[in-house]
DNA sequence: CAGATGACAGATTTCAATATCTGTCATCTG
DNA sequence: CAGATGACAGATATTGAAATCTGTCATCTG
């Protein structure tokens, strides 16, 4: 769009790459497109990112990190009832994903492809961060005597995996169906019952 | 293989279609291939199945029904402890899927494509049958005073969805990883804890 | 006449030629 | 001389013509 006289930074490249991905989709967005949009040669892009895959990874990480940050607020919330906090966290995650999928389906499809490409690396770390947050919530719940769990990390992992259907993009098609909301509640209810400490 | 002089039945067509799918894969298996393998014209195949999609659906249903039947035995088991029976059912489902995926990865990939094609119809019914079995186990558990659940069907649905990761072919890649077994146990433990009746 | 056939139209797939892209690097420029 | 360039080789994607497939149906055959 603009010839942009500003210095070429990794940050500007990432912004432009997002834009190009939004416009062209994951299959047709090329490094040459990104360079063209920035008004530079594609060789310059390779000065900041070693490969096209690395560039895509960086964009994907940015996108995932936005969600991680959003949820961190809930973990940090002080003195809430552990069960309520765990439910709030899971609900916020589901809501965030559902909103992304619903508001801009094409962009969501683009990121679904990107995350599939980096399942083992970037997405793996993202999931580790999320289960880390969950572990923190469970740990606090155990400390408060509200939850019973031998190992908070194991329990958190189980909770995360048991709710895959409500955050894995693979199931996005199910998220706007009539029963989705009550299905979610039923799973969360069952999991919270399983965590709750016996008197 | 053989020119087969026997009468052309839907059953024989299904058997041959399985064979052709096994050989050629889902992308390249054509109705013409099936007809050729049977030594008939493809018009004759269309006398038994209205479309190629209908033929594929029928094959897929056969395949899924084999698993349904396997699990029905566990539901029918008399007088077992409800928790043990539920665990056995979930374990058998996971084991059956994992075996299929591991023993013949190409065939499993073929059926993964087929089930994706018929997600709304055949697979939907298959899932309904499985959750029906689960509901029966939960209902019996509630009757025996071992489980607490307002609505057994809802609880069964929640258990099924919470274990998606261990039966949805989408996750097949995870099933042979080191942690899979203990991840499975952690989720099932948590779910059983959630179902268990309080004294 | 129940059931099989194969020619056919329109849709889909294959294939090979062509164009574009990725990643490198010798060269240029401020 | 730090940073940008663009020519280049090999890999990948696009394209359009030809081949194959799907689904129908008038016709044939036991």
Please supply descriptive tags for the structure shown above:
DNA-bd_HTH_TetR-type_CS (chains A, B), 9 helices, Arc Repressor Mutant, subunit A, about 200 residues, DNA-binding, transcription regulation (chains A, B), homodimer
Task: Give an overview in words.
The structure is a homodimer of 199-residue chains. Chain A has helices at 10-24, 31-38, 42-48, 52-76, 82-103, 105-117, 122-143, 152-162, 180-195. Chain A is elongated. Helix content of chain A is 70%, strand content 0%. The termini of chain A are far apart. The mean pLDDT of chain A is 95. With 199 residues, chain A is mainly alpha-helical. Chain A has 2 domains: 10-48, Homeodomain-like (Arc Repressor Mutant, subunit A, Orthogonal Bundle); 56-195, Tetracycline Repressor, domain 2 (Orthogonal Bundle). The A-B interface holds A 154-155, 157-159, 161-165, 170-171, 183, 186-187, 189-195, 198 and B 154-155, 157-159, 161-165, 170-171, 183, 186-187, 189-195, 198. The structure holds a DNA duplex (30 and 30 nucleotides).
Secondary-structure blueprint:
The structure is a homodimer of 199-residue chains.
Chain A: H1 10-24, H2 31-38, H3 42-48, H4 52-76, H5 82-103, H6 105-117, H7 122-143, H8 152-162, H9 180-195
Helix pairs in contact in A: 1-2, 1-4, 2-3, 4-5, 4-6, 4-7, 5-6, 5-7, 7-8
The first copy, chain A, binds a DNA duplex (30 and 30 nucleotides) through residues 8, 27-28, 30-32, 40-44, 46-47, 50-52.
């Amino acid at each position: 769009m603009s010839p942009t006289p500003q210095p070429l930074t990794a940050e500007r490249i990432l912004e432009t790459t997002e834009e190009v991905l939004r416009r062209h989709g994951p299959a047709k967005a090329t490094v040459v497109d990104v360079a063209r949009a920035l008004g530079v040669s594609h060789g310059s892009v390779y000065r900041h990112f070693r490969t096209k895959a690395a560039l895509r990874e960086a964009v994907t990480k940015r996108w995932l990190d936005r969600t991680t940050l959003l949820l961190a607020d809930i973990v940090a919330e002080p003195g809430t009832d552990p069960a309520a906090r765990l439910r709030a966290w899971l609900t916020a995650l589901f809501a965030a994903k559902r909103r992304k999928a619903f508001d801009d389906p094409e962009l969501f499809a683009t990121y679904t492809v990107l995350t599939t490409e980096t399942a083992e690396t970037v997405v793996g770390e993202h999931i580790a961060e999320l289960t880390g947050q969950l572990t923190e919530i469970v740990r606090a719940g155990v400390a408060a005597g509200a939850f019973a769990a031998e190992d908070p990390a194991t329990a958190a992992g189980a909770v995360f995996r048991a709710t895959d259907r409500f955050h894995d993009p693979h199931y996005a098609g199910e998220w706007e169906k009539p029963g989705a909301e009550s299905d979610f509640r039923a799973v969360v209810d069952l999991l919270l019952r399983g965590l709750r400490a016996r008197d």
